[in-house]
UniProtKB/TrEMBL annotation:
GO terms for cellular component: plasma membrane. Residues 4-255 form the ABC transporter domain. This is Amino acid ABC transporter ATP-binding protein. Keywords: ATP-binding, Cell membrane, Membrane, Nucleotide-binding, Transport. It comes from Hominifimenecus microfluidus. It is found in: Cell membrane. Transmembrane segments: none annotated. Its main location: membrane. It is a peripheral membrane protein. Pfam families: ABC_tran (PF00005).
Length: 259
């Protein structure tokens, strides 16, 4: 069964139709790379998945359960949205770390806030906090930052900050990890270290949706590639189909510019 099913997603900002009926599905452990020129609607689609935007039409299902249905707004209580958002981890272009917290605290904070909402938190506080620290440390070690736990964002390079952001997203154990151009704010020499971490996650069968302009990387890690233009999916297939044998003229033109 598909872990993620996106059906007929549309999004309008006033009269501007940004998404015009997006359909795709993703199996557990698969990586979907989304490519396309700037302005084609990729970020908006990721934001719809994460409830940062509300689609004007369509259905989103996770693990067979409908978590969003534009025709049934009752699903959209604040509590429901917060719960549903947890299916998706987000890693943004610009890291978005909290500058006032260390790398470790950035990673553990969201889970700490969740733990505090549990009624038995006070009686278990010490163990819960120790467990969170342990998980956070292990995640930072897994992205190669075991020696930077107590560093603040401004003491880290862009690539290191982005790796903290990845660890932070993983901490909440999302079903689907989403990346919005994770390397486009980085100097070229820092891109490799972030792509290596994402490649490692793919090797460990992490389900991911990645918006990227790194075509070589998309070709290597993706199971499915989705080429978007002007709010529609122009072409959707395996990396081989899209990169080696594109059927559509628009895909060919795009690839000529980016490959
Ligand atoms: P991409 O990620 O492919 O560059 P985006 O999803 O960022 O594309 O943008 C698609 C289109 O939607 C653009 O024309 C952009 O200006 C428009 N857009 C995005 N967000 C908003 C918004 N909040 N209000 C109005 N227009 C928006």
């Amino acid at each position: 069964m598909a872990i993620l099913e996106v059906k007929g997603i549309e999004k309008k900002f006033d009269n501007l139709e940004v998404l015009k009926g997006i359909d795709f599905s993703l199996e557990k452990g698969e990586v979907l790379a989304m490519i396309g020129v700037s302005g084609s609607g990729k970020t908006t689609l990721l934001r719809c998945l994460n409830f940062l935007e509300q689609p004007t039409a369509g259905v989103i299902q996770v693990g067979g359960k409908t978590i969003f249905d534009a025709s049934n707004p009752n699903l959209l209580s604040e509590k429901e949205i917060r719960k549903n958002r947890q299916h998706f981890g987000m890693v943004f272009q610009s890291f978005n770390l909290f500058p006032q917290y260390t790398a470790l605290r950035n990673v553990t904070l969201a889970k700490e806030l969740q733990a505090k909402e549990q009624s038995d938190f006070k009686s278990n506080k010490k163990q819960v906090m120790e467990q969170l620290q342990k998980e956070g440390r292990e995640l930072l070690e897994s992205v190669g930052l075991g020696d930077k736990l107590d560093y603040y964002p401004h003491q880290l390079s862009g690539g290191q900050q982005q790796r903290v952001a990845i660890a932070r997203a993983l901490m909440l154990q999302p079903d689907i990890l989403c990346f919005d151009e994770p390397t486009s704010a980085l100097d070229p020499e820092l891109t490799g270290e972030v792509l290596r971490v994402i490649r490692g996650l793919a090797d460990r069968n992490t389900t991911m949706v990645i918006v990227t302009h790194e075509m070589k990387f998309a070709r290597e890690v993706a199971d499915q590639v989705l080429f978007m233009d002007k709010g529609v999916i122009v072409e959707h297939g395996t990396p081989e189909e899209i990169f080696e044998h594109p059927k559509e003229e628009r895909t060919r033109q795009f690839l000529e510019r980016y490959l």
